Amino acid sequence: MKDDGINADPLELEKFSQLAHRWWDPNSEFKPLHEINPLRMNYIEGLAGLSDKIVLDVGCGGGILSEGMATRGATVTGIDLSDKALKVAKLHLLETGQQVEYRKITTESLAKEQPQHYDIVTCMEMLEHVPDPMSIIRSCAKLAKPGGWVFFSTINRNPKSYLFAIIGAEYILKLLPRGTHEYANFIKPSELARMARNAGLSEEKLIGMTYNPFTKVYALGQDTDVNYIMAYRA
């Protein structure tokens, strides 16, 4: 449910806040994010470019993607509702010297403040953690400039995704802490596509992301059964 009108689950915020100090440890619970970050950035850059673009990273957490996009020449704003994660993100900038603006603000509020402001809006691994994903999608659409790009990544909902994303990743391989994901909150590509259309976005490309437990390598490809990224134009 919504907490005082804010589209966030307090338990989800607390869960990630407790891990905030480990965001930039490449061997921590966030190791998968560090390993897929180059794939995500290459995908975004290949479609939309990053150099000299005005970019918004929704649900930025500790800033792994935000700071990465900044290193490729983008002017980046990262927003999140976790004070601890944002503090870690800001502290990391002191170590690297990168420039990112981090703000604690809801996507919905920023959409009212800065409509049609961004060349690129990214919302990665967040939709499955909020009570009202449609509200986030609609706000991301409002934040993008006409013709701008919007990227969503999330997890499909089917028996295979339950086996791989929860049983495999959280219990067997221990890639993620137990309880990171709730199966009921996973979103099928068809559902995301419908919500995006209703928000006025035009689908450009759907791509899957896979993990090979034997080689321990992540890759982008046609398999969208578990993790996937959808690219849209506003």
UniProtKB/TrEMBL annotation:
Q: Return any one Pfam family short name.
A: Methyltransf_23
Kindly tell me the pathway this chain contributes to.
Cofactor biosynthesis; ubiquinone biosynthesis
Keywords, alphabetical: Methyltransferase, S-adenosyl-L-methionine, Transferase, Ubiquinone, Ubiquinone biosynthesis
The catalysed reaction is: a 3-(all-trans-polyprenyl)benzene-1,2-diol + S-adenosyl-L-methionine = a 2-methoxy-6-(all-trans-polyprenyl)phenol + S-adenosyl-L-homocysteine + H(+); a 3-demethylubiquinol + S-adenosyl-L-methionine = a ubiquinol + S-adenosyl-L-homocysteine + H(+)
Q: Where does S-adenosyl-L-methionine bind?
A: R40, G59, D80, M124
Identify the enzyme class: transferase
Instruction: Write out the GO MF terms.
Output: 2-polyprenyl-6-hydroxyphenol methylase activity; 3-demethylubiquinol 3-O-methyltransferase activity; polyprenyldihydroxybenzoate methyltransferase activity
The UniProt entry's GO biological process terms, in alphabetical order, are:
methylation
Q: Which domain of life is it from?
A: Bacteria
What range does the record give for the signal peptide? none
Which InterPro entries does the entry link to? SAM-dependent_MTases_sf (IPR029063), UbiG_MeTrfase (IPR010233)
What EC number(s) does its UniProt record assign? Answer: 2.1.1.222, 2.1.1.64
Q: Which family does it belong to?
A: Belongs to the methyltransferase superfamily. UbiG/COQ3 family.
Q: Which HAMAP family match?
A: UbiG
Its biological purpose is as follows: O-methyltransferase that catalyzes the 2 O-methylation steps in the ubiquinone biosynthetic pathway.
Name of the molecule in the record: Ubiquinone biosynthesis O-methyltransferase
- The gene name on file is ubiG
